[in-house]
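Technical appendix A lists one of the benchmark inputs used to test multi-chain prediction within the project. The record comprises two sequence entries:
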Amino acid sequence: MDRPLGLLAELTYKCPLHCPYCSNPVAVPRAAELTLHEWCRVLAEARQLGVLQLHLTGGEPLVRPDLTPLITQARDLGFYVNLVTSGVGLDERRASELAHAGLDHVQLSMQDADRGAADEIAGARVFGHKLAAARAVTAVELPLTINVVLHRGNIGRIGPIADLAAALSADRLELAHTQYYGWGLLNRSALLPTRDQVVAAEHAVAHARATYGDTLEILYVVADYHESYPKPCMHGWGRRHIVIAPDGRVLPCPAAAQIVGLGIETVRERPLNEIWHHSPAFTRFRGYGWMSEPCRSCARKEIDFGGCRCQAFQLTGDASRADPVCQLSPDNHLVEAALRVVGPPHQPLHPRSNPSVE
Amino acid sequence: MTAALLLTDRPQLRRGVRAATDPLSDETVLLFPEGVLILNETAAAVVRQCDGCLSVAEVAQAVGEVYDDVAVADVMSLLRDLIAQKLLVANRG
């Protein structure tokens, strides 16, 4: 039996940024966030299941005033604790507090190397805060990864982005193409890069790697819409990862809540161990038995697990179909059509709004 | 890419990489931002010696005192692999 290795804890959907590529759900249920006490119980249950890594994310996890005691508890339980943050509110005092609590690593989002473009896409004047946050993280000697989501508007500035990450003494730079879920899907036609842009980006990444060598590790997460085969989404459904939404819903991936009729349960109703093993949300697409053709007889099914269930649902209305990104999928024309309508460089974007939470 | 490694290098885990014990299997695991690497017993013994002070030669010697069949070349090969995976740094000079 597979066991989960990673827990993605979405502590809140609140965020000071309004990035139009956010993969958070566009509509979130009005439900109270888990309390510190509830999170501590859930973390202990996750540890017993075998989870080794905890990713604290959101929304913006720094919004939670109880983040420090949560990290302390997580480290006491033995987790590797990674904070995924916008950096807003991360001054040196807070960074030091989190480091002392046992935080292992910080992933800081940057939107662009250009201040004006960065603040425009973030929907807030935060570029300066982010530079300060990066310096605060390295000042307290926490390892720093800078994450940049790539889209049509910034994909031409990979060189300057790498220069910025190096100047900020980041250990790693992760350049990840937009994943088209939530707000990202809503804004897809304005965010999708052209094929020429993707080719140029690959050259720019190779050039940046040659420039920085071992001093800056550069990870590049490909644009799945432009690939021939799908990504091995979550390394298989219900196989390695658990996502817990702010209100305690337990999901196999951050986008799964949109799949109608999935049978999602919450940690407020049932122990995590039972949910992992028996919840319909986890068993529905676990393994290979749910597959139809062309996946069922495909030699690649153990490589990519049929791709992304949420992408199949979003594009075809049926989560059990092959990921339409796959060139073998009968629905591949849907992706091809999306790529054909890539519009002009500047199109209006729908900025991510904040949920109304009691 | 094969990472260059000298017998006089003093390897240590890269910043952000932590060795821990898997509570389910009791195996040694390396934890890092994007993943988990499970180490076999001899690999774990090698990594535990990589403190940034001991040289590669000294690491191999220390592990060789506990495990009979550990060749320096095998230790070098493991360390090169971990350096290539960005889990270990060599420290030179």
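Chain B has a mean pLDDT of 92. The radius of gyration of chain B is 13 Å. Comparable benchmark entries are summarised in Table A2.
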